[in-house]
Amino acid sequence: MNENQLVKLAQAGDFDAFNLLIVGHKDKIYRLAMKLTGNREDAEDIVQETFLKAIDNIDKFRRESSFGTWLYAIALNNIKAQAGDRKKMTLKPIEEYLPGGHEAGAAELFDWGDPHKLFEQKQLQKLIESSLAKLPHKYSVPFILRYIEEMSIDEVAAAIKLSVAATKSRIMRARLALREMLSEVFKERANERVQ
Question: Which 3 state secondary structure label does DSSP give 107?
Fold first, then answer.
């Protein structure tokens, strides 16, 4: 049975069809909630609240996006309601991240190589996650959905309810901010090895 058939059955009150719809998304929603809250109990609460809201509102799902994207949107609303952007850093204007955009005396970015190869390393993954936790949710969420959950730009835009252009802009700002944060860490480590 395909997703559209399951949605129709779930909208007609078939709880088994609803369970089949959510089973493939539970772990993804949990991982997203963990990355954004950093707390297992909060993440579990968000997963539960997401599925409760989804079952209560399944009749409002209009199939303009995939069921998974709709679930992500519900989860993101729950995360935002629970955590907000408290204790997050302020991002610089995008121009300041680009070459030549730094003020006089500012540190240049350290070239730390191909991020896809490095991301697979456990130590770097933890470093990226801790850096992501410092970003405001409006930047970390699109980055996580795009690069960690491997959603397309269109799916990310639908999940966060922004235009594709605005979504791309937020992902780019997150990437640039992460690159700068990680460059500083790698510079420090390189300097420690030299000494």
Answer: coil
**Eight-state DSSP code of residue 102:** S
- Residue 7 predicted with pLDDT over 50: yes
Tell me: the pLDDT tens digits for 14-46?
889 999 989 888 999 999 888 888 788 888 999
In order, the DSSP letters of 19-78 are HHHHHTTHHHHHHHHHHHH--HHHHHHHHHHHHHHHHHTGGG--SSS-HHHHHHHHHHHH
Contact 137, 80 (CB under 8 A): yes
CA end-to-end span of the chain: 62
Domain covering 3-83, topology: Rna Polymerase Sigma Factor; Chain: A (1.10.1740)
Threshold 0.70, pTM exceeds: no
CATH topology for 94-194 is: Arc Repressor Mutant, subunit A (1.10.10)
CA atoms of 95 and 48, how far apart (whole Å): 41
pLDDT for 182 equals: 85
Q: Which tokens hold the place of 76?
A: 């993101």
Give the confidence band of 180 by pLDDT, cuts at 50, 70, 90. confident
